[in-house]
Amino acid sequence: MKVIGLLSGGKDSCFNLLECLANGHPPIAVAGLLPPPQTDELDSFMYQTVGLSLIPTISQALRLPLYTRIIQGKPINVDAEYGDRETEGDETEDLFELLKLVKENHPDAEAVSVGAILSSYQRIRVEHVCARLDLVSLAYLWQQPQDLLLPRMINSGLRAILVKVAGVGLKEEHLGKDLGQMRRELFKLNSIYGLHICGEGGEYETVTLDSPMFHDTIVLDETMTELTDPSPVAPVAHLLIQKASLQPKPDYKPLTTADARALLGYDLEEEYGDDWLDEQGKEVRESVSQVYSALSGITKQSSSSELIRSMEEQRSDRTFGICRNGGWISIGDVTAFSGPSIKKKDEMSLEEEVDECFKIIKNALHPTPLSVVQSLTVYIANMADFPVINKAYSAHFHSSPPARACVEVPLPKGTRILFEAIAFEESRQKGNTRNQMGRERRGLHVQGLSHWAPANIGPYSQAVIVNSRITLSGQIPMIPATLALPDPPSFPLEAALCLKHVRSLIRALKEGTGGSDLKRCFIEGSIGWVSSWSDLDGARTAWTTTLEAETEAENPLFLTSSIPPPTLLVQPSSLPRSAKLEWQSFLHTGQTSPRLPRPTGAISTFASRTSGSDSDSDDEENRKSPEPIIRSFEKKGSVEWIESEFREGDARWGVAGFNDIDSISNAIAPEWAKSSLNAALSVKVFYSPKQRVSEIQDRILSLHPYLKSCAVTFIPVLSIATLNNEWELGIVWNGVSE
Q1: Whether 198 and 65 share a structural domain
Q2: Which one Pfam family would you cite for this protein (predicted)?
Q3: How many Å apart are CA 222 and CA 244, to the nearest integer?
Q4: In 263, 552, 613, 635, which residue has its Cα 20 to 30 A from 656's Cα atom?
Q5: Among the listed ranges 214-218, 409-413, 425-429, 625-629, which one has the minimum average pLDDT value?
Q6: In this structure, what is the dihedral angle of CA atoms 41, 42, 47, 50, given to the nearest 10 degrees?
């Protein structure tokens, strides 16, 4: 792609241009927003204005045309989300007008380089503008660890100096020093005061005097220092650049993509995929590889095409189900024909099926708007229909869409799409006060390419938090910088990539991305979609290795216990982009929430913390525990139950596996499992080819009286397993504590 480089003059915007080139996207022009005349520093939420006078000189050094615009707007819309439409008079609209001008002069421009590292405020607005202009945001520095990023900048040959200091420990004498000279001091101040090594807290700002992409070196001929706050702890001072010139580099040759990759250390990996994995990811890949080395055969053969066809021949005439519990709303088993549709199956186009499903969901939510939906799961009969479904789906959402998982399963004949949705009606409230206990809905919706995690390839958010519960979108093993899957395919590498993406999402949420402020979080449960059942043991090993690594970590991303959280592994017919694995995790923030109204008739039981216990004793200590309780129960060869509960956070999440239909009716269930089903909000029932859907529906609904009024979705799949056993039937439930 041909790139427009957004320039602030600082280290981040210049280094991201080098990243763009290394990833095969050469810049063709640069653009910068300038403060009004005689204004050295503007009060802007969006733009660095210190040192912007050097932008014309930088564009000359790059040998690229420069486009500028005076900033006229103000930070009017300062919400976490910029919104569905432009805000008149907002400073973001200056960026839109600037990039519109560049694109008019360079119609072949396809992308924009932006040097955001941590600022969601800046990233969201750039992505919003790019979407309106049909441009792709390239933010390769996004979420990179600052202790690794700063040395990479220095080692690449980029030279940037400090032109503003405003952080504790930084002094006026540090102005004019380059990053190489300041490296030791910045790391020291980080260890003492928590100063952001790359200045992401506004502690310092820079201008770039040299880069491997510069044809000339910039020389500062005249400067002066201005002290605006003489605080002895954190003085604020500026280096004002009054005159600069260019010094040609002898024998300079324009940088190629290969040159840039070499400078940044790409293509030097010891093993295929090293560029895309961190150390924990490499450990996961190695553990899974060892499993394959040890296996002499596959665990279980995948279901044949004949069995898939037999599942598709089955019919299901269930109507959709809806459940309201504790402020949550769940809608299950939604097809275009589970509501009052007046069209027959063979009369409806695929787009009309999608729209009919959303009509059912909207009517079920009424008067709550569709915008409060936290997550949607989309089951489609043919992955080849995905582009059409995705386009029709996108018409129903704008900014901050729900989290989503999408898989192909052998749906009953005539049904091409099946939905289930979960929403929280209280999330319409604005603000994030202590009294609301985090009920406000917040989304992590990253659309730009980076090295962090995949940009969304559809109208979904990577994660949505509401009422202290987090749903991550299903993660497939795309390479974040390109959105391609590894080629050649490799399950150990793909599993490691999937779970690295999961960890990257959690890390971004914990570091405040998307307006979150998570001190800790817990995995409530996970669903792993495994495209080939020969990879079952590999998927199990990848997840258990991830859990073990977090248990041993000094600063874990999420807290775990000796019992792994509930996990169900399922084989669909196919996954998006023919991926080998899709992983979706559900988490709790660890924050408590107030009790909300329940439907009447709840069973009042409580189980102990002990694994395998069948006790219904009222353990008051468990009620007060701020930690999650994980319970498990197994009757070998017949049934397995496992559940996580965070009582203070009013949340339960569990899975159960059954050997056959008869084991449902005769299931030995601990009291805590009965209590959990009584508080279920949504239930997914996965059944394998050997089962008849009509019989399963009757048996499942007879398992517990409450299920008849719950939002239950029946999903045909090819194979089912927990971390310990393989099953013919599986249940996943999501509910609230009693």
Answers
A1: yes
A2: Diphthami_syn_2
A3: 7
A4: 552
A5: 425-429
A6: 0
Q: What is the pLDDT of residues 148-204, one digit of tens each?
A: 999 999 999 999 999 999 999 999 999 999 999 999 999 999 999 999 999 998 999
Q: Which token pair is 299?
A: 């665990």
- For residue 408, give the nearest of 214, 524, 571, 601 by alpha carbon: 571
Domain shared by 390 and 525, yes or no: yes
Q: Name residue, tokens 């939002």.
A: 711
Residue 690 pLDDT grade (very low, low, confident, very high; cuts 50, 70, 90): confident
Picking from 485, 734, 410, the residue whose alpha carbon sits closest to that of residue 585 is 734
Name the percent of the chain in helix, strand, coil, to the closest 5: 30, 25, 40
What's the whole-number mean pLDDT along residues 566-589?
95
386 and 250 together in one domain? no
Q: Which residue's structure tokens are 């930070």? A: 75
Identify which of 92, 111, 115 has the alpha carbon closest to the alpha carbon of residue 102: 111
Is the pTM higher than 0.85? The answer reads yes
279-294 vs 491-510: helix crossing angle, rounded to 10:
150
Instruction: Supply 85's token pair.
Output: 């439409």
Kindly state whether residues 227 and 294 are assigned to the same domain.
no
CA distance 650 to 450: 36
Q: What does the pLDDT read at residue 611? A: 36
Q: Do 223 and 251 share a domain, yes or no?
A: yes
State whether 665 and 711 are in the same domain: yes
Structural domain contains residue 403: yes
Q: What's the pLDDT score for residue 314?
A: 56
Which region among 203-217, 428-442, 455-469, 719-733 has the lowest average model confidence (pLDDT)?
428-442
In b/e form, how buried is each residue of 285-313, taking b as 16+ CB within 10 angstroms? Answer: bebbbebeeeeeeeeeebbeeeebeebbe
Give the three-state DSSP class for 417.
Answer: strand
CA atoms 522, 527, 530, 536: torsion sign: positive
CB of 544 within 8 A of CB of 283?
Answer: no
User: How many CB atoms are closer than 10 A to CB 242?
Assistant: 10
Cα Rg of the chain, angstroms: 27
For every residue of 553-603, which 3-state class applies, written as one string? CCCCCCECCCCCCCEEEEECCECHHHCCEEEEEEEECCCCCCCCCCCCCCC
Q: Which two tokens stand for residue 490?
A: 């490799």
Residue the block writes with tokens 């169900």: 568
Tens digit of each residue's pLDDT (9 = 90 or more) over 520-577: 788 999 999 999 999 999 999 999 999 999 988 888 888 877 789 999 999 999 999 9
Q: How many domains does the chain have?
A: 2
Of 382, 583, 380, nearest to 491 (Cα)?
A: 583
Positive or negative, the CA dihedral 412, 414, 419, 420 is negative
Domain that holds residue 328: 279-735
